[in-house]
Each structure stands twice: as structure tokens, then as C-alpha cells.
Amino acid sequence: MIECSPQKASCLVALFLIIAVYYIFAETNLFTKDLNTFEKDVPKCIPIFDEANRMIAKEINSTKRILKNPEVYSNISAKCEEAIECAESSGSHLKSYYLDGKYNPCMFFAFYHGHFSTCADTLIGKVGDQIPCIETVFHESFNNKTEKCEAYKNSQPCLVRAILNACDVMPEEGKMRKKQTKKDFYADVIYNFVPALCMNY
């Protein structure tokens, strides 16, 4: 029989509690760094993100539709991938930050034109099938950015369902957070486009 002194038992309990608290914080993203920390960590990358955002804003303002075929955004995607690679090469993984704003659209366009492009083409092919969010995002015309913003935000839950129903595509390895479901992953990806439509930066 192994004997354990009260002091040793207390230390083991304390160690267990520390480990448990760490995992709770990690899984709930409470260790996630904020926007200002990101900008301080990768100052050389910010001008690249800014240039990409100007390209995104120009494209959004020049069309009445919310989204087009992924290939239309090849130049935007290339600039966004350059910005993301700049950050990643500096040791700053974007999923470690809470970037609720002007850096999210680049993550969307790099994904939309890249890994997700086949699924996007499948969704566009369903225009005319009377799926409300598909018509809204890929077919309907809007007079201004404000209308696009509201229409896209209202379409997000439907878009997630459409992706899960129509596309046999898994997120790229390493892109999902711990214990994140496929549904939650695509909800986050779709949300990343919101600031491009709903913010002025």
C-alpha cells in the first residue's frame, strides 16, 4: 500500500487544480490576445493588411452583389495570403488573437478563394433553387453597403446550413480551434466577412 502524507496530497490536489484551470481557460479562449497586441506583435505586416483592406473596400463598393465567384477575388486573396503569411512567419498565429474587426476580412478572402472555392462554386450553382440566403448573397442586388451588411448578417445561419448540406469539405488541418465543431468553424469563417460590409476602417 502506498502511503501519502497530507502535505504531498495537498500539493497533488493543487497541481491538479492548476492544470484544470489552465485547460478551462485555454478551451474558452480566455488566453486569446487582443487586437492591439496583434498590431504590436507584427508591425511590419499591418501595411500589407491595410493594402488588402483597400482592395476589399474598392471591390465591395463597385458591385451591387454581396459575393461573386471566388476567382474574381484572386488579387485580393493573394494580398491577404501575403499579409497572413507575414504574421505567421513572425510567430503570430491569427487564431491566437481576438481579431474582431479589420483583419477578419483577409482571413475570409484567403479561405473563400482557396480551400473553400469548390464549395463556393457549388453554392453559387444553387442560385435559382429558392434557398433564401443563396439568393441574397450570390444573386440579389443592393443599393449600398448598409443594405449588404444587414442582408449578409441575417443570412449567416442559413449559409452555415447550406454549406453543411451541400459541400463535402473539411476545414484545413490546424485551422480549427480545440473542440470546435465543423458547424462552428464555418460560422466563424462566414462571420469574418462581416466587418468588410459593416465597418468603415
| Low-pLDDT residue intervals, each spanning 5 or more residues | 18-31
Helical fraction equals: 55-70%
* Mean residue pLDDT: 82
Radius of gyration: 21 Å
User: In total, how many beta strands?
Assistant: 0
**Class based on secondary structure composition and strand pairing:** mainly alpha
Quickly count the helices: 10
How many domains would you count in the coordinates?
1
Task: Name the quaternary structure.
Answer: single chain
Strand content range: under 5%
* Biggest sheet details: none
Shape: globular
Task: Write a concise keyword list for the protein shown above.
201 residues, T20D4.11-like domain-containing protein, T20D4.11-like_dom
Could you explain how this protein is built, in words?
This protein has 201 residues and is mostly helical. The chain has one domain (33-198). It has helices spanning 6-27, 35-41, 46-61, 74-89, 104-113, 117-124, 132-138, 145-166, 182-191, 194-198. Helix 3 packs antiparallel against helix 4. Residues 44-169 form the T20D4.11-like domain. This is T20D4.11-like domain-containing protein. It comes from Caenorhabditis remanei (Caenorhabditis vulgaris).
